[in-house]
Structures are given as C-alpha cells and as structure tokens.
C-alpha cells in the first residue's frame, strides 16, 4: 500500500476500476469534517465512534490540512468531538476510554500543528469553544485525575500521562501554550505525587510522572504564580520525596550503565588494539563513539527538586546497596507498552524495591553518588550542545547543593565515607585510574575531584568560560563551609592547587584569543581569591600544619606564573580600555601571593648559597618556609569567605527557557501515541464490557 493510501485510511483496491475502500472510522472522521452535525442522521454516532480503533495518522493529517475558511464551518463539530471525548473518559467500557484518550491527543497535536501562528485563544476556541472551555477542561482534568488515582488499568494510567505530556509539549515554547492555564487551575499535582509515593505505580509510571512535573513547573515560572512550583516547594512527605529520588536515581543509573557498557566494549577488540599501536591519535574518536544520549529531562527534574524543596536534600544522601542494573533486563509482560522518553527504562524489579538486602561486602551508594558519576561522564565532552547543557545543569545543581547547610553537613560527614568511581577523560600523559585504588572518603572529596578533573581537562581554544566560573565558585562555597565549621578535610589539596595554577598559566598563554570572547580577569580573580582563602584561613581548615607549608611551597615553586599574571594585569590596568577595572581587581588580589613570593624567594636563594646547594629538595624548601613564617607580613583581605547565593532569575532564565524548549521538543518526538501498541491495548480491554 502506498504512503498516500495509508494516510487516507484506505483498506484495499478491489480492482483497477474501483475506488479503494475506506475504514469505517475514516468515513466517520470525514463526517465530522463535513459541515453538518454527524449525529443528526445517526443518534448513536458518538457511541459508535469510540468503539472504533483510532486512526491517529489520518485524524491528525485531516486536522492539519483543513483550510482557514473550512475551520469556521466545522468548528462546531470539532468542539463536539472534544466534548464527547471528555465524556467518553467517564465510560465503564474501557475501549471507549482508550480511544477517547488517543483521539484527544490527535486533536491537541493536529489543531496546534495547523495553527502554529494562531493565538492560544483561537486554538482554545477551535478545540472546545471559548465560552465552554473552562468547563470542558475542568471535566477533562477531573477525569484524568480520577483515572490516574483510581484502581484501574496500568495501561490506561500510562495513556493518561502520555496525553498530558502530549498536551504540555504541543508548542515549542511551553509558556505560550495557553491551554496550560486550565492545567494550572485544575491541578493534577496530587495525582503525580500519588504515583511517585506508591511502589507499584512508580515502577510503571514514575519516569513520565517526574518529566511531566518538571515541565509543568516551568510553565510561565517567571511571569505568574505557578501552583506546581508552590506545591513542590512544600512537599514534606517522605515516601513521595523518596519515590521522586528513586525515579531520578534509576534513570541516571541506567545512563551510567549504558556508558560503562560502551566503554568496556571499546576497551577490547580491534579499536583498542589500534589505539595502543598508534598512541592516542583516536582519543577524540573514542569519545565520539562512547557518546550516550543525555537525559536533560530527568536532570531538570532533579534540579527543580533540589532547588525548590529543601526537604529533598535528605533524599540525596539516602544510602542503599550499589547494584548494576543488568544489561539485558528480565522480559516482563508489558502493562505499559511504551519506552520512557530519552532513556532505556530502568529494571522494574529495581524500581519496585526500595529496600534491598544488605551485604556487608557490598559498596553502598546514593542518589548523589549516582549523580556525580553521571556528571563526570557528561562533563567530559562539552562540544555537543546537549552535553554542554547537561554539564551546565549538573554544575548548577552542585551549586545549589554546595550552598545548602544540610547538604554540606552530610558531604563533610566523616562517618559517611564512600568510594566514588568518577569517569576520567582519556589523556596522553596519565594512566587510567584503577577502581580498586579509590579510597573511601567523605563525599565532598568526590565533588572536589570532579571540579579538579574538569579544570584540568577543558583548557582548549573553545574555552567553556561559564562552566569554569561555576566550577571555581562551587569550590569556593565548599571552602567557606569548611572555614565556618572548622572542618579539617583530609584531601589531596596539592592536586587542586596545581590545577588552579595551570589554569592561570593557560589564561596567560591565550590572553589575546580568550579576551576577544571572555572576561578572563573575572575568572583569574576567583582563582586568586581561592589561594587567598587558603593563605588567610587555611590554618583553620587544612588537615595539618604540613598542608599549610605545602601551600606556600607550591606558590613559591610556581612563582613565575603569579609573576607573569601580575605583569599582565598591571599592564592592562594602567591602560585605558574595557578591562581596566577588572584587571585592577586582580592586581589588588595578588598582594599576599606576591608578598609570599617576595619574602621566601630571597630566603631560599640565601639558604642555597650558604649551604652550596645548586638545587634544593622539597624538604629543604619546606624547612626554609617553616623557619621564616614569623617575619612574613600579610594583609587581611575582607569578604574572602562571602559569596553571592544562587538565583535562577534573572541570570539563568534564558538558559532554562532554551533548555525547557529542547526538552519539550524531545518529549514531543518520543511521546508518539502511534508507538502505543493499539493491538496490546485493545486485546487487554476486549474482554471488558
């Protein structure tokens, strides 16, 4: 059968001279698109329609091809179809409910597709009649709520969520979808929470419920009071919050598993042999090959939960056994015939079992660890727009976490140690870390490792300035907490100092190129002030006095970088130009670093001269440092332990607007009700009267 025949719902050609026959449901659709009331000559028209298997493609295509003048003539029939769809949702006959849900989806999509330039009010008028819209949508939302919260079929619940996702994503910009005003008034928030709090429902529908909630929260969030934002911010029911966390956790775990599988696949065979033969020529290709589709929708849900609800912070730390979801999950009888959006569904057995038997030899995990592993993957390659958005969102989430006092408390808790295997970008000059060598440490160490890893691996021409700023600010916020609570963290601080100094070196080497696009002085100031934090307050949070000595050793050892930075900012600040003021701030910030260099360098040279040593060892330099603290004079700098708290509006508003648009397009593409197996649905309900 040709494509044209498929679209018009033709059944077969009996002979070359005869017209092809049409399905009965297609003939009934044609009656709706005629001028007269289809029920005029057939009072049972609507009852019969919803007993027919829906032809979604034909109905949508028909709606999209109706001319402007024709729309006015058939509007009453379209309104009537919408009204009878809503009524059919209350029917006991389940096949009618299934067909009504699918027809509604076709209506929403077809009318919006045809009238992309039309106002929201015109679309509402065409679908349901503006004067009756409030009542129609109230009835629709009540019936969907009833279906979602009832004891009925899981397939119907899945279909209801698909319809809602379809409705929410019919416009590219979610905030221009005027119909959602009725979804704000007639909230389904409680129905979503019920799905998340119930173990069985969560396993079947948790993913779609969480994505739906994340999208609804972003409807006109900066323009008016969004009830979903208000309600999400005050949820304190533990099972509900745990359920939301579990859905996010399993979606991210599945992503991590897929990446790990691809990584292991690429470590063997011809590709691995070839790379070992020719060095690291193909590292970029390996990254390309290891790319797994990112999941911004689930990440957005995690962000909204962390950002809006302080109670959700406790969910991040909930420990449970770390278990890999099997690569080939057990085949289950599909109650929900569709695959969740943008990801392979997590194993239902895993989703349904919040309590799992503990093995004393089994490493425990939590949502935060899974998230950090996810972030370590997506932050490796930020050249792709989706991965760049994911990396940025990961850093925004970590910013919110680093600012939260409770989150900081469990991040630094010495009684909560974990072995976190972060993914590291392949680089020529270092070997791949062996998992077993990773020590068990407080979670803040993994966060710092992630920041250091990013700093070290992204010094490139297409410099991701925004991500670097966020990384350095996250480190600063963690240090502020450590200083405030006098927490002496046993961490390899030298790796951080080395990474920061190399970053300054990179900025200096690429000054001209970077200044054409970025204010490098702002980043340089943040980095220098991190050193000032260590210099001024390090004695309150560095683990030992030896750590403080090592800080001075690193500054003196790498003094050339700081000297060059000072020369550069002095040059720029003494000339007129747009960078005069920001460069001047860096000049002032360097005062203590320069004092250390200028104080200890002559002492070290003198020590070498007196002892006739051409090159001092590290221990000898440290000895000079320890014996000359008393004569060092430093200036007290104000505000080093202060920071600007994260605020989404106005700084991040444009980013989230574009992110939600991208997620909405992806959800719309994936929520195709044509992928719902109508055969499975109809078979399930064929025995129900």
TrEMBL record:
Keywords: Membrane, Transmembrane, Transmembrane helix. InterPro entries: ARM-type_fold (IPR016024), ARMD3-like (IPR039868), ARMH3_C (IPR013636). The keyword Transmembrane helix applies. Residues 435-671 form the Armadillo-like helical domain. It is found in: Membrane. GO terms for cellular component: cytosol; membrane. This is Armadillo-like helical domain-containing protein. It comes from Eleginops maclovinus (Patagonian blennie).
């Amino acid at each position: 059968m040709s494509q044209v025949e498929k679209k018009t719902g033709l059944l077969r050609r009996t002979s070359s001279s005869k017209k092809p026959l049409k399905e009965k449901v297609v003939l009934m659709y044609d009656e709706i698109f005629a001028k007269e009331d289809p029920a005029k000559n057939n009072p049972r028209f609507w009852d019969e329609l919803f007993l027919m298997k829906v032809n979604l493609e034909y109905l949508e295509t028909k709606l999209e091809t109706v001319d402007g003048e024709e729309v006015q003539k058939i509007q009453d029939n379209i309104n009537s179809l919408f009204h009878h769809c809503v009524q059919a949702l209350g029917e006991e006959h389940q096949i009618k409910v299934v067909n009504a849900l699918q027809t509604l989806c076709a209506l929403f999509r077809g009318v919006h597709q045809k009238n992309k330039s039309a106002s929201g009010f015109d679309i509402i008028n065409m679908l349901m009649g503006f004067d009756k819209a409030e009542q129609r949508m109230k009835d629709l939302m009540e019936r969907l709520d009833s279906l979602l919260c009832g004891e009925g079929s899981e397939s119907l619940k899945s279909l209801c969520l698909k319809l809602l996702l379809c409705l929410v994503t019919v416009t590219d910009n979610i905030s221009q979808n005027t119909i959602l005003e009725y979804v704000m008034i007639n909230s389904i928030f409680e129905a979503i929470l019920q799905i998340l709090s119930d173990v069985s429902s969560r396993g079947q529908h948790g993913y779609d419920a969480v994505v739906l909630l994340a999208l609804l929260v972003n409807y006109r969030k900066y323009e008016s009071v969004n009830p979903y934002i208000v309600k999400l911010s005050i949820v304190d029911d533990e099972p509900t919050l745990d359920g939301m966390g579990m859905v996010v956790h399993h979606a991210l775990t599945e992503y991590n598993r897929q990446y790990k599988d691809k990584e292991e696949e690429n470590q063997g065979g011809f590709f691995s042999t070839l790379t070992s033969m020719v060095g690291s020529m193909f590292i970029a290709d390996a990254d390309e090959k290891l790319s797994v589709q990112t999941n911004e929708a689930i990440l957005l849900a995690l962000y909204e939960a962390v950002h809006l609800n302080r109670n959700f912070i406790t969910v991040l730390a909930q420990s449970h056994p770390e278990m890999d979801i099997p690569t080939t999950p057990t085949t289950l009888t599909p109650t929900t015939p569709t695959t969740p959006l943008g990801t392979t569904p997590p194993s239902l057995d895993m989703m349904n079992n919040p309590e799992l038997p503990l093995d004393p030899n089994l490493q425990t995990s939590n949502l935060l660890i899974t998230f950090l592993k996810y972030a370590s993957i997506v932050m490796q390659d930020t050249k792709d727009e989706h991965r760049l958005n994911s990396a940025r969102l990961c850093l925004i989430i970590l910013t919110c976490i680093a600012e939260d006092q409770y989150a900081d408390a469990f991040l630094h808790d010495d009684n909560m140690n974990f072995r976190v295997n972060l993914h590291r970008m392949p680089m020529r000059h270092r070997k791949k870390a062996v998992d077993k060598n990773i020590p068990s440490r407080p979670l803040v160490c993994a966060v710092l490792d992630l920041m250091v890893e990013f700093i070290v691996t992204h010094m490139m021409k297409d410099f991701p300035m925004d991500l670097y700023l966020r990384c350095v600010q996250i480190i600063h916020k963690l240090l502020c907490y450590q200083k405030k609570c006098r927490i002496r963290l046993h961490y390899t601080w030298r790796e951080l100092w080395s990474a920061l100094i190399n970053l300054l070196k990179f900025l200096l080497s690429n000054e001209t190129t970077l200044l054409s696009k970025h204010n490098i002085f702002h980043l340089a100031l943040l980095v220098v002030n991190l050193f000032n934090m260590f210099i001024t307050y390090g004695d309150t949070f560095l683990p030992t006095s030896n750590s403080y000595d090592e800080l001075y050793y690193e500054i003196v050892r790498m003094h050339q970088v700081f000297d060059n930075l000072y020369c550069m900012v002095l040059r720029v600040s003494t000339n007129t130009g747009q960078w005069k003021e920001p460069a001047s701030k860096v000049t002032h910030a360097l005062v203590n670093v320069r004092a250390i260099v200028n104080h200890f360098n002559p002492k070290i040279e003198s020590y070498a001269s007196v002892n006739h040593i051409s090159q001092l060892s590290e221990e000898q330099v440290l000895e000079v440092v320890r014996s000359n603290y008393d004569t060092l004079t430093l200036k007290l700098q104000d505000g080093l332990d202060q920071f600007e708290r994260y605020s989404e509006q106005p700084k991040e508003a444009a980013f989230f607007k574009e992110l939600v648009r991208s997620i909405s397009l992806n959800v719309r593409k994936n929520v195709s009700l044509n992928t719902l197996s109508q055969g499975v649905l109809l078979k399930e309900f064929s025995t129900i009267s």
